[in-house]
Each structure stands twice: as C-alpha cells, then as structure tokens.
Amino acid sequence: MWTDLAGSGTKTWVWATDIPGGVCYGNGGWQGCTAPCWWSCKASDLSGWGCLNDQMTFDLQGRANYTLVTVNIGTDGLAAGTYTGTFKFDMTKITKAGDGSIYARGAVIMTQPFSRGFQPNEGTAGARPNIYSYNLMRMNANQMYVEVPETATTGAWGTAWFWMFKKQGYAYTK
C-alpha cells in the first residue's frame, strides 16, 4: 500500500477524468455502489469549481508526507493554495457489503483533506465539514478510488461520496 500510494519515494495523484465514462466524483449507495452512481461529476464540473487540475503528492521522505495543491474557487473545502500534512493507513478497517463481501479494505487517514474533501450535504454552504479518513475501494500503482459515507448513513444504500484518482501520467485504455 505504501508503495502504491507514494511510489519509490514520491507520487502525484490527479483526478481520473479519463476513466471510462468520465465520472470521477459524486455520490451513490454506500455498500452498494463502488463508484459514483447517483449524482456524478466529470471534468467540466471539476473545472467549474476550480479543482480540475488539483494535485496530491505523497512521499516517504523521512515520514509519510502529503501535499495538496488546489485552485478551488468554490465556497466549501480548502481555499486555493498549497497544504501539507501527513498520512497513515488503517488496514484493520474493513467494510462489508450486505452480502458479507468486502466492500472497502482499509482506510487512508490524512491530516489535510483530499481535493474536494468535504461532506457536500452536511453543515451549511461555506462551512461544510472536511473529511480526514477515506475508505479504500481500490488502491494499486495507478488507481486510487476512495469513498466516505455521509455521517447520517447507517446502513446499506445510504449516501456515500466517491473520489476517483489516478497516478499523474497514467492513461486509461479506451
């Protein structure tokens, strides 16, 4: 997991806008959907919020470091700028689907949120709570798909939010 996320020392992640279907952010049913399947966003949506070109860099230089560069122009989430922090994994966190299968395996825990890392349906505009722990839906050398259920979600098909990232430079095959 460490190597998948940070490579052999440093790795930068960007939105997976070229993912088949182009949907790289949105919501869907917790423990049901594995990607945005209700309300979904593509590159044009991210561009409108100013976060299309956000970059998240992870490195293992002395500790597990994280840097987010965002030009967010929205009223929620972190203001435009560069944010640094640290991260860790909790691989004991296993989320199971209603049928008992593994839905999410592990979590990445941040001291700074991911790009658009806030709960869109909670709080009030301009004061939505940031998210610091993301459940790992898929993690490999090229793809990082994470999700977080809304706070009020207590069971299958409650609302969850999904972020689809890829290693900078990686291209999905058509």
Q: State the helix count.
A: 2
* Strand segment tally: 10
Chain oligomer state: single chain
Largest sheet: 8 strands, antiparallel, barrel
Spatial strand arrangement across the major sheet? 1-4-5-6-7-8-9-10
Percent in helix: under 10%
Describe the structure.
By secondary structure, this protein is mainly beta. It contains 2 helices and 10 strands, in the order αβββαβββββββ. It has one domain. The relative contact order is 0.24. The model has no long low-confidence stretch (mean pLDDT 94).
Outline:
This protein has 174 residues and is mainly β.
Write the layout of secondary structure elements.
Layout: H1 2-6, E1 10-15, E2 25-29, E3 40-41, H2 43-49, E4 55-59, E5 65-70, E6 81-96, E7 102-110, E8 133-139, E9 143-149, E10 159-167
Antiparallel strand pairs: 1-4, 1-10, 2-3, 2-10, 4-5, 5-6, 6-7, 7-8, 8-9, 9-10
Which labels suit this protein?
single chain, mainly beta, eight-stranded antiparallel β-barrel, 2 helices, 10 strands
